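REQUEST FORM: STRUCTURE PREDICTION
Request ID: SP-0412
Submitted by: Lab K.M.
Chain count: 1
Length (residues): 299
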Amino acid sequence: MDWGSAIKGFHAYLKLEKGLSENSIEAYSRDIGKLQQFAYTRPNGLKPDAFTLNDLRQFINWINELGMIPASQARILSGIKSFYKYLLAEDIIKNNPAELLESPKKQRKLPDTLSYQDINKLIEAIDLSKPDGTRNKAIIEVLYSCGLRVSELTDLKLSNLYLEIEFVKVIGKGNKERLVPIGGEAIKALKLWIEHDRIHIPIKKGEEDMVFLNRRGSRLSRVYIFMLIKQLAETAVIKKSISPHTLRHSFATHLVEGGADLRAVQEMLGHESITTTEIYTHLDREYLKETIVSYHPRN
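STATUS: Completed
RESULT:
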């Protein structure tokens, strides 16, 4: 089987059977692209269905020599394993050469978080006298209150807000829906934006249901949210390098520190596996350790 046909079929499988987003499919394509590049370095080139376990191990050595960190290698190998599962399911191969392939050990880096005081400083740095001040405050409040990914925020719809019962419906990775509680301060900021400022914007056709809009009536970009948070951090003199994801991490960390059940945090974050959420228990241990070191009389 040639590479073009294999990759085209894999795309259709990811989209139709797995229901993955365009961003996820694109990421998988880049992973298979690396394997294809490696195949062309082999004598006579290797077809997708001609790979052996030994070939794949040589591929791991190859990407390692390219200087890729273990986390990037592990992500690529995850894509390769999915690719060979697809080929096996379609009877293109009889045996899966990737089945016994081991991923490199990943170091779990604890993400940066903000304290509750830093969150307040970030919100206080917003200039509410400016035309977009009310909207920007609502953005920060919602990110922190609901622990949303940046794409979930930019795609948030008015029809998915259930503010009277204090919930929002979020469309996450793989188009999976989840209901997330929203706090009083975020509700107040959202209502102020929607009822007093958003109504004066000439909305572009097709964007009528989007919560957050720019002055031209189009939905906000992910890049804009990143830039907004960087600017607010500078104004608030927060020295950490932060992004929209920092607010998501802070949301989860503060819940775990407050004693929230890990399964509940997993549900709110939209993590498929509890293992992903468990990183916040490590953060909690660090917090406890720092507290003991700082306040225990024998330290």
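NOTES: The chain has a mean pLDDT of 86.
Reviewed by: T.R.
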